């Protein structure tokens, strides 16, 4: 799991101990939104690592297990020995209760969703808040008996012990989730813990961070050259801009145009980085080699593998041509590092991991530079804004590594990529025009491997079908199809069939995830 930079040793850190909750990352993000640094470590991490961090406070996350069963995770003794404030959330509360002498039961009354919390005694976590809060619950087990020396703080109708605190030590526990936005004043509850209990300093500020990262990059690479694979995505773009500020033209970027990018994307990336920002970018025009390797291949996983492998081959070939490169930069971000990440597919992580030193020719032996390794996506975007990248670039929908390769169902040809690029461009252009682009999380066109009948003039002919997909999602793990207005869809459909001769039919995908995935392959 994580092995974060040693850079942050000096700054106040709230440690989040991960028991496997889907909300663990959210806890760390909320803390950082309050300008306090937070780091996530697995619950069974090595003692030495915890000691080295010297946390100002520790938050125990929720998790899917039940403390009523043996062999489920427990809080390691070191957490208590450190004598720093502790906040247990959901499973974190239950294991605290169980380990400190209380009792936890598996309740018949499972609680999912909103609940009214009644705060019945004074507790610093609820300072400045009312006595009743609407909170978000997600649990089956609950604390039945308080552990020794703990006081009851709050209850809900189904959970008589919904919050508790130690009589004299700074140990607190909540059955509900203060980290989710559904919990009213959840942010204040967390802030009360961070500031009033842990007395953490607000050391985590974006402008300080940029200066600090620049200094660290300079210290690490000194006068050497750094290679970066630039994809035009948010992470690699911000990495490029940061490295450029740190080491100027000692940064060499390689941008691989594999022919599977969106319309105009290659030109846009080259314009932004080479023309406007004056970065040293080498463009590798590799459409031909990608299409050759993909010829006749229809199996989606096979296509992904071929695209990934060809990418690495092309990148390596470009890198080998360059002389005296000692460092390889990567736009790895925190969710890539935390194994539980769901925002990117496994394949994406495999591809990223291939780009580390191991994927490059043995003799190159480059050291990694990963300046965004401990940042969340929204922090990367904020850094991008500070570094002068355009908001269009920073707020673009995600685009999968294999690109249009997984949006053309069946085999891939130049003709099909051309048709799909046009259709996709029309869809996105209209979304932007109608001010709908930002309201959806991801939108794109898909080339279907079927022909359907159409009428052109008096003639019937079989022509191509384009699918449109637009979804709303927070984490890309689940998604709802976007309810785009009918007149908007009509406009897009008309434009596609009128402007692209080969297409006679447009369909809109109304499947949610699950069971459908966002991509079609
Ligand atoms: P699915 O289709 O799994 O997509 O619902 C979830 C998110 O992951 C992206 N995705 C990929 N990204 N390589 C990537 O880099 C891939 O092979 C890949 N497959 C899906 C997808 O675009 C969506 O944002």
Bound molecules: xanthosine-5'-monophosphate
Class of the largest domain, according to the CATH hierarchy?
A: Alpha Beta
Q: Major sheet: order of its strands?
A: 2-1-3-4-9-8-7-5-6
The low-confidence parts are: 1-8, 340-358
According to CATH, the homologous superfamily of the largest domain is Class I glutamine amidotransferase (GATase) domain
Provide a quick synopsis of the model.
This protein has 521 residues and is α/β, with parallel strands linked by helices. The chain folds into 3 domains: 2-197, Class I glutamine amidotransferase (GATase) domain (Rossmann fold, 3-Layer(aba) Sandwich); 206-394, HUPs (Rossmann fold, 3-Layer(aba) Sandwich), CATH 3.40.50; 407-508, 2-Layer Sandwich (GMP Synthetase, Chain A, domain 3).
Written account of the structure:
The structure is a single chain. 34% of the residues lie in helices and 25% in strands. By secondary structure, it is α/β, with parallel strands linked by helices. It folds into three domains: 2-197, Rossmann fold; 206-394, HUPs (Rossmann fold, 3-Layer(aba) Sandwich); 407-508, 2-Layer Sandwich (GMP Synthetase, Chain A, domain 3), CATH 3.30.300.10. Strands 2-1-3-4-9-8-7-5-6 form a nine-stranded mixed beta sheet, sandwiched between helices. The protein has a five-stranded parallel beta sheet with strand order 12-11-10-13-14, sandwiched between helices. Strands 15, 16, 17 and 18 form a four-stranded mixed beta sheet that branches. Helix 6 (206-221) packs across helix 7, helix 9 (287-294) runs antiparallel to helix 10 and helix 15 runs antiparallel to helix 16 (486-499). The radius of gyration is 26 Å and the shape is globular. Residues 1-8 and 340-358 have low confidence and may be disordered. The chain binds xanthosine-5'-monophosphate.
């Amino acid at each position: 799991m994580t092995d974060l930079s040693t850079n942050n040793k000096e700054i106040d850190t709230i440690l989040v101990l991960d028991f496997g909750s889907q909300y663990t990352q959210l806890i760390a993000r909320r803390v950082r939104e309050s300008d306090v640094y937070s780091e996530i470590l697995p619950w069974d991490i090595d003692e030495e690592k915890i000691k080295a961090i010297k946390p100002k406070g520790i938050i125990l996350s929720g998790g899917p297990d039940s403390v009523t069963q043996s062999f489920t995770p427990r809080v390691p003794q070191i957490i208590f020995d450190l004598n720093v404030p502790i906040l247990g959330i959901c499973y974190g509360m239950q294991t605290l209760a169980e380990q400190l002498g209380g009792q936890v039961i598996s309740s018949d009354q499972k609680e999912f969703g909103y609940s009214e919390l009644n705060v019945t005694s004074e507790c610093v976590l609820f300072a400045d808040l009312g006595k009743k809060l609407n909170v978000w619950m997600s649990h089956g087990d609950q604390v039945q008996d308080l552990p020794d020396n703990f006081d009851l703080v709050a209850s809900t109708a189904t959970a008589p012990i919904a919050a508790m605190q130690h009589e004299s030590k700074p140990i607190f526990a909540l059955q509900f989730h203060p980290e989710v936005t559904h919990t009213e004043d959840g942010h204040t509850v967390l802030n009360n813990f961070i500031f009033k209990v842990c007395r953490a300093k607000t050391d985590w500020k974006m402008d300080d961070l940029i200066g600090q990262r620049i200094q660290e990059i300079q210290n690490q690479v000194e006068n050497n050259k750094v290679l970066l694979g630039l994809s035009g995505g948010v992470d690699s773009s911000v990495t490029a801009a940061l490295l450029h500020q740190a080491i100027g033209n000692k940064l060499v970027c390689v941008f691989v145009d594999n022919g599977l990018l969106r319309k105009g994307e290659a030109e846009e990336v080259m314009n932004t980085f080479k023309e406007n920002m004056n970065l040293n970018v080498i463009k590798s025009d590799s459409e031909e080699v990608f299409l050759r390797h993909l010829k006749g291949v229809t199996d989606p996983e096979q296509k992904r593998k071929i695209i990934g492998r060809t990418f690495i081959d092309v990148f390596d070939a470009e890198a080998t041509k360059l002389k005296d490169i000692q460092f390889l930069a990567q736009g790895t971000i925190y969710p890539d590092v935390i194994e539980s990440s769901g925002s990117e597919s496994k394949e994406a992580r495999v591809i990223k991991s291939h780009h580390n030193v191991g994927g490059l020719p043995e003799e190159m032996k480059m050291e990694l530079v990963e300046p965004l390794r401990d940042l969340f996506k929204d922090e990367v975007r904020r850094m991008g804004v500070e570094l002068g990248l355009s908001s269009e670039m920073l707020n673009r929908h995600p685009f999968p590594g294999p690109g249009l390769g997984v949006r053309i169902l069946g085999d891939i040809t130049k003709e099909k990529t051309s048709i799909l690029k046009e259709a996709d461009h029309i869809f996105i252009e209209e979304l932007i025009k109608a001010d709908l682009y930002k309201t959806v999380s991801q939108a794109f066109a898909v080339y279907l491997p079927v022909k359907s009948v159409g009428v052109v003039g008096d003639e019937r002919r079989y022509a191509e079908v384009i699918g449109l997909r637009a979804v709303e999602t927070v984490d890309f793990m689940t998604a709802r199809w976007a309810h785009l207005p009918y007149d908007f869809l009509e406009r897009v459909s008309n434009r596609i069939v009128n402007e692209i001769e080969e297409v006679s039919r447009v369909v809109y995908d109304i499947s949610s995830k699950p069971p459908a995935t966002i991509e079609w392959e």
